[in-house]
Amino acid sequence: MLAVIKTYSLEGITGYPVDIEVDVQGGVPGFDIVGLAGASVREARNRVRSAVRNSSYDFMPRKVTVNLAPADTAKNGSAFDLPIAVGFLAGTEQIPQDNIAEYIMIGELSLDGGIRRVNGILPLLISALQDGHKKFIVPYDNAKEASYIIGAEVYALSSLSDVCSFLGGIMAKEPVPNTQYESTAAISKYGVDMADVKGQSCAKRALEIAVAGGHNMLLCGPPGAGKTMLAKCVPTIMPDMTFEEAIETTKIHSVAGKTDGEQGMVTLRPFRTPHHTASLFSLIGGGAQSKPGEVSLAHNGVLFLDEMPEYNKKTLETLRQPLEDGTITVSRVQRTIEYPASFMLIASMNPCPCGFDGSRLRECTCTPLEKRKYRARISGPLLDRIDIYVDVDGVEYGELKNNVAVETSAQIKSRVERAREIQRKRFAGKGFYTNAKMTNAQIKKYCALSSDCEKLLESAFARLKLSARGLTRIVKTARTIADLRESEAIQIADIAEAIQYRARSLHQ
Amino acid sequence: MNTCEKQKTLLWLNRICGFSTPKMHKIMALAQNHDIRKSFAKYRKAIADRFNAETERIMADTVSDEGLLNRELKSLDEAKIKIVSLFDDAYSAMLKEIGCPPLLLYCRGDIGLLTTDCIGIVGSRSPSRYGLEVTRDFAGTLAKCGLTIVSGLARGIDSEAHRAALDTGGKTIAVLGCGIDKVYPADNAALYKRIEEEGLIISEYGPGVAPNNFQFPERNRIISGLSKGVLVTEAGLKSGSLLTANDAISQNRDLFTVPSNVTSKRGLGSNLLIREYPHCIVFTPDDIAERLNIHSRKEQVSAMQLDFLEEKLVDALGFAELNFEELIELSGLGVSELNAMLTRLELFGIIKKLENNYYGV
Question: Do A401 and B324 touch (CB under 8 A)?
Fold first, then answer.
């Protein structure tokens, strides 16, 4: 007898429908899975056999053929176990077939008949919902993640026998109640606070501006000056993720298998710190399954590259596409997938290989050639995408008795949120939300400068040997500074402050 | 023998026979101011006696080959290389005084600079920021006083001296330790071009000669030889600029040194020079101008209206370089106001932004 079960599989972060056809016939006993099934899908045969037996059903010796339609798309993963087992039981008439077509089933089986959690539940369910499916059977451990999807009737079950009882109407089960999304980005969850950073007022202010305007940023300073600490504080002052942002980010983390069962959603802004030995593929994504990489996992959050010049040069260059478009295209033999990758880049570097160039504490031991080679590792095009540069203080704070009131992350965050709100209104319907993403035409439109400001820029251009691009970056930064003041007009002081965050030339 | 013929003879000895400057001197002395090329047969025996058969053979093989010489002249001309011989008026009178002056100088740029008043400025190839700043200040000011800044186009102090001279609209001569057409170090290609256009590049080595290490000390004697005095702004213990300083002393030139930080190894060599020659210490470019009897042309700094707070910051920075954090404490301003003020002062050229978030005047 033939049974058809509906399920979904992932292509990048979107799901596509897969019909699982299980045909049970008499003949030489066997269990074949066809339809470009990968190794992990073909192994389902063994899991299904044990799970069926251990759920006190009969694994009859029959000629069983399982087809995964569409048959021309490669399929991988263990999420087909449950639908194959249910299809088998329906095909052998051990359970009734009446209502199985109503449900989308997803789940991996354990040998004892239990259902294990799978990756990518959120994107799978969202795609299925868009295709008009309403009822889902998912692993119990994925319940939390699935509960955020409004409009879906999700049944979270923990074993194959439960599924059969439920389908047969023997066991009643309520759908999982919707969880209301609330951003749990309580600053305390990050474990750091801006108030903990001693001194560094200039760098802190620069971070505030960078976050407010979505500007990429480079921190330069000697080892131990606190660059990493500063960068870690960035998520604490970023505005809370909206539901849409959280869904987007969770989709990616879900596909990568990085969601937390209890939490279900990614509610904190991601802060990704790939190590400098990170390979190209771990950074941009790839592998046989074209998994998302660090740039995608940092979507809507921060990608922090500590000691940027230490990274492989080729790896760094691949950041150009995501920095420009907010997406990354991962091409492999089997498929080409586009993942979202819109992040704020924070990079840190030492001024030279030994780290003490210009330091008052120790003498630099690098030769000019070493210094130049070190700095040349960050290419011009990449530098062009970084708006704000700041030197962190190489200073012993023990000597300083600073009376300036130290602000907490919460205080800074409230200013950032107001500035972001202004930008959201300004760019409504433009497809982006931050000053950093303005094109040249938009800069002309939204950053009107008084003649005094123009004059200041002109003298800075001549005196400080700035480039035309450098000027553009200064204007963008000044726009954000004005937004932080909640002022429509860019004033001369805004430009003057922005000039202090200009790029120091790394290439001479 | 007219000048042009002498140039041709020297060119023949140097480029075609491949003789070094000392050997050319010996040969010229042998011929006692007669043109050895025209009457080679007469000196043939003497040369074989004085040197060896190989030398005689090389000279004999090429002496009458006018074509070879003309081709050499043409290729120099095409490469825009001018030659100045010891016997020319264009040759520096100062350089003539030294022990073994180059007989032939290959030049690119304005050869008129050879006869101007020059000062050599040399130092470390990996200087501290202090060394670079002092060099910039001295080279810029002295160039403005009308002195031509002579240096060796090396990395660090040398390059900074050349740049400072050109930036202030002054003149500069770069003396190379390799062939005139070679840029060494290669990263100074842009500076080489600039000096070629706005100053003068000279070398006693013709085109194509590789930068061999023994040539650089020889080049140093030309730097000091051209100059009325030599300033060593910062030199490490084993710096080649100390050789230039020795040349300057042996050539009877004035030697100048600025003191360096005693805790820094980068200035150890120049500090030891001060111990050896206490008289050479100078603190300002004016000290040098005075010793060389040159009138400095002081520029009036355009008076800038500073408010009380700005005045306070500038005064404090005059005593020591200060960190941003210290400036906040000093001024009592917020971060954004202070940054705006620093930009203004920076644009007026009163203060400078340094590494590690330090500021200085």
Answer: no
Listed by number, the residues of chain A in 467-496 with a beta carbon closer than 8 Å to a beta carbon of chain B are 481, 492-493, 496
Q: Which residues of B touch A222 (CB under 8 A)?
A: 356
Quickly state the pLDDT bin for A505 (edges 50, 70, 90): low
Tens-digit pLDDT profile for residues A344-383: 999 999 888 888 887 777 778 888 788 888 888 888 888 8
Is the domain of A212 the same as that of A86?
Answer: no
Is 1.10.10.10 the CATH classification of the domain at B308-360?
A: yes
| Tokens 């043109």 belong to residue | B35
pTM above 0.90, yes or no: no
Distance from the Cα of A343 to chain B's closest Cα (Å) equals 26
Interface list for B 172-201 with A (CB within 8 A): 187
- Locate the chain A residue with the closest alpha carbon to B321: A360
User: Cα(A208)–Cα(A407) distance, rounded to whole angstroms?
Assistant: 11
CA distance B273 to B246: 10
Does the distance separating the beta carbons of A358 and B339 come in below 8 Å?
Answer: no
Q: Residue B279's closest CA among B300, B314, B309, B249? A: B249
B352 touches chain A (CB under 8 A): no
Please judge whether A205 and B340 are an interchain contact, meaning their C-beta atoms are less than 8 angstroms apart.
no
> Using CB atoms within 10 A of its CB, is residue A452 exposed (0-12), middle (13-18) or buried (19+)?
exposed
* CB-CB neighbours of B103 under 10 Å: 24
Residue B325 touches chain A, beta carbons under 8 Å: yes
Last residue of a domain, one of A133, A167, A201: A167
CB B235 within 8 A of CB B273: yes
- Decide if A394 and B266 are in contact by the 8 Å CB cutoff: no
ipTM, two decimals, is 0.76
pLDDT value, residue B252: 92
Cα–Cα dist B3/B1, whole Å: 7
- The beta strands (E) that lie in A233-284 are given as 271-272
Tokens of A97: 């077939």
User: Which residues of chain B neighbour A493 with C-beta distances below 8 Å?
Assistant: 336-337, 340
- A286-298 residue pLDDT tens: 877 778 999 999 9
**Domain span at A115:** 2-167
Domain count, chain A: 2
Tell me, letter by letter, the H, E, C secondary structure of A309-353: HHCCHHHHHCCHHHHHHCEEEEECCCCEEEEECCCEEEEEECCCC
